[in-house]
């Protein structure tokens, strides 16, 4: 019949939600693991280079004493740039550990996320099992939480070193030379091991666990949710144009960037107070060292949180949140876009 559009005549476009379409580790598991680690490492390292100066400002805002010495993020940037300890260089101090940590964190997150999906499909046969089928959003949130919990164990020692290196010596100008000499990554590692043993590297683990478990659920959940929303919108758009969209290939890059940006905002905002408490715990010895105070017994996660609440209230728990959310959007967008691009290129 003239004018009737047959399905075989319709041009087919393709798209999918990339991370929910990860190949289960049932075949070539070693190759898939290497791809996750390699792609995640590159993506995480590039993202860290973008966000690190903002992260330094965040840590300094979080760990400053009471009353605060910074009036906000811009004032912290200004004081850091004018500091006698190195100006712009001070904002990148200690970046070697975070670059290493970002590579480990991002590769671990994506790899653990894939493993968690495969595990859920194994233990719950009622879940979608076919290649290209997306798990329910609730299941993806659970996978994200599992991924974050696993990653927190690897991340805490690296963040401990990072936070100690980022703490500003400008609090005590008379000690700049001494602090500069004593605060390289290796000296911090040696100091922690000497004073607290191997378990000392996991100080603040509870805060990291809370942040990474909830934050990673929000990170992957937001990415998947926004990707699904964008995919459905595109499906409807091409349906109106009488074209079919095959949900089997990667989404457009601008969709990945938008979904990744929303994931970064969700990750950092939801559990930010846990990160603030963790940062204060991990820098309290450096604060005492810079001020030449007496060494005190280490506080617990709950005690540090209670002290911060009593001194500064809810505002103190979210100090530095604004700049963190602002820098996390482009950083997370780049991480997802690079990861998905490299995964698509590697096959």
Radius of gyration: 23 Å
> Major β-sheet, in short?
2 strands, parallel
Helix/strand structural class = mainly alpha
Could you tell me the mean pLDDT?
Answer: 78
Helix share bin: over 70%
Note the gap between the termini: 42 Å
The spatial strand order of the largest sheet comes to 1-2
Shape: globular
Structure overview:
The protein has 347 residues and is mainly α. Helix content is 70%, strand content 2%. It has twelve helices and two strands. A two-stranded parallel ribbon has the order 1-2. α1 packs antiparallel against α12. The N terminus is likely disordered.
Brief overview, please?
The protein has 347 residues and is mainly alpha-helical. Helices cover 70% and strands 2% of the residues. It has helices at residues 29-63, 73-82, 88-91, 96-123, 137-166, 176-182, 185-196, 205-240, 253-270, 272-291, 301-317, 321-346; strands at 12-14, 244-246.
Helices and strands in order, then pairings?
Layout: E1 12-14, H1 29-63, H2 73-82, H3 88-91, H4 96-123, H5 137-166, H6 176-182, H7 185-196, H8 205-240, E2 244-246, H9 253-270, H10 272-291, H11 301-317, H12 321-346
Parallel strand pairs: 1-2
Helix pairs in contact: 1-2, 1-4, 1-12, 4-5, 5-8, 5-10, 8-9, 8-10, 9-12, 10-11
